[in-house]
Design brief:
Pfam families: KH_1. This protein is α+β, with helices and mostly antiparallel strands. The chain is 49% helix and 21% strand. It has helices at 2-5, 10-19, 44-57, 63-70, 81-98, 117-135, 149-153, 156-165, 186-200, 220-237, 254-271, 286-290, 295-301, 322-342, 350-357, 362-371, 390-407; strands at 22-24, 39-41, 74-76, 100-104, 109-113, 137-143, 168-174, 177-185, 204-209, 240-243, 247-252, 276-280, 305-310, 315-320, 343-347, 374-378, 383-387. The strands form six sheets. A three-stranded antiparallel β-sheet has the order 3-5-4, sandwiched between helices. Helix 2 (10-19) packs antiparallel against helix 3 (44-57), helix 5 packs across helix 6 (117-135) and helix 8 (156-165) runs antiparallel to helix 9. The two termini are 49 Å apart.
């Protein structure tokens, strides 16, 4: 029943809109048997159409894709972001040459032809062939001065390319010097290469990923106003902003690029309040949101929306249809609620931090042993973090607050001569 209704009722609304049929679900206060009945109200044709769509949705299909296939379209599903970006650029030429209509979504393409499904299948083959070059795996090494390696390898734009395409970036040193070795889809490695070369030349480079076809939804007046806002932003920040079909590129000084990107996110949210959103994260929660080996981030990206994590700024950019954005937002918010229960950050003076550590680490070891929580103390940053299961974190927090209170802001605690981080 949950899959039929969808997050915030988005799935059932799409089913009703696409079928012209009203779907009546049983009240929630009824006892829930293993099988629950829903009532369909509409014409015979609408009911049959709705039943077919529901059957597909219950096994994981998207309503819009299902109705497109019912109506004769050919649907290409699970298209990666790099291929979608390339396809967005080819869209007009393919439509003009083959007399078809391409309906692009975050991860699918619906091909419509007045000549029937056979023609649409032929165009699907054309698209598959056109994407082969960009899907080829390529390896490129970009020379980078040694003093810039750490700066570039941790650049947020480079990390976003890796997150979205699976490309790897590793530092490489050999007789020819130092460089960054890129391995992944040809389109991704070339995009990353340009970005790195721009950074090496002293400039800033970044991009903001968009859902394919987002800007096409604008009416002419809106489009003109949006372009005016972008021109004003360029003049204000002194950087170059290039609007593409599925992303916006930024070039300029590092600081200008960061500010312009942040401002454009706000502008897009103004024009598309239900389709564009920036979630601000606590810096300590960024790794949690990404998940181990970025697995959680990859799952979020499979939800049908563009999801970009900016680790440096501690923000998560969402762009997609309303249903997909709401799904991702809800999932992230639920995840962060769990993170807040299992992670606590405390700020304390250096004296208080040393009191928590104790002589030769005796106090911190006892706290961890008795509560089962992990406690990390960074004296230089004057920061204490606690992580573990809910109860363990709560117990450790009480113990540490008692110690901090006893040490006081001006407590005199013997200085450790060894490490300042535990």
């Amino acid at each position: 029943m949950g899959r039929l209704i969808g997050r915030g009722g988005m799935t059932i609304r799409d089913l009703q809109e696409g079928s012209g049929c009203r779907i009546i679900t049983p009240p929630r206060n009824e006892e829930e048997p293993e099988i629950r009945e829903v009532k369909l109200v509409g014409s015979i044709k609408a009911i049959e159409r709705c039943k077919e769509a529901i059957a597909a949705v219950l096994i994981g299909a998207e309503p819009k894709d299902v109705f497109a296939e019912i109506d004769g379209a050919v649907v290409m599903k699970n298209i990666d972001p790099m291929s979608m970006g390339h396809l967005t650029k080819m869209k007009h030429d393919i439509e003009s040459k083959h007399h078809v209509t391409l309906d692009l979504d975050a991860k699918s393409v619906r091909i419509w032809s007045m000549e029937g499904q056979q023609k649409a299948q032929e165009v699907k083959g054309v698209i598959d062939d056109a994407l082969q070059d960009i899907l080829a795996v390529d390896t490129v090494t970009v020379p980078v001065p040694p003093h810039m390696v750490n700066l570039i390898i941790n650049d947020s734009a480079l990390q976003q390319i890796q997150d979205q395409t699976g490309m790897t970036a590793n530092v490489q040193k050999n007789d020819k010097g130092t460089g960054i070795r890129l391995c992944g889809l040809a389109g991704a490695t070339q995009e990353a290469k340009k970005m790195i070369e721009c950074r090496v030349a002293g400039g800033g480079a970044s991009f903001l990923a968009l859902m394919p076809g987002l800007l096409d939804q604008m009416q002419p007046r809106q489009w003109n106003e949006f372009q005016g806002d972008v021109r004003f932003l360029q003049n204000k920040e002194g950087c170059e902003i290039e609007i593409g079909p599925n992303k916006v590129d930024f070039r300029g000084t590092v600081d200008c690029v960061l500010r312009a990107k942040s401002e454009l996110q706000k502008i897009l949210h103004f024009y598309f309040p239900t389709q564009c959103e920036t979630l601000e994260l606590e810096p300590e929660s960024v790794s949690w949101v990404a998940g181990e080996d970025d697995r959680e981030l990859m799952r979020l990206q499979q939800a049908g929306a563009v999801v970009s994590l900016d680790r440096a700024a501690a923000t998560l950019w969402l762009c997609g249809n309303q249903r997909a954005v709401e799904n991702v937002r809800s999932r992230v918010q639920n995840s962060l609620q769990r993170w807040k229960r299992e992670h606590v950050s405390l700020h304390a003076t250096r004296g208080q931090c040393r009191a928590v550590i104790g002589s030769n680490g005796a106090v911190i070891r006892e706290i961890q042993s008795s509560t089962g929580a992990r406690v990390d103390v960074d004296v230089n940053r004057e920061h204490i973090s606690i992580s573990g299961k809910d109860e363990a974190v709560a117990q450790a927090k009480v113990r540490i607050l008692q110690i901090i209170s006893g040490a006081g802001s001006g407590a005199s605690v013997p200085k450790r001569t060894g490490a300042t981080r535990w």
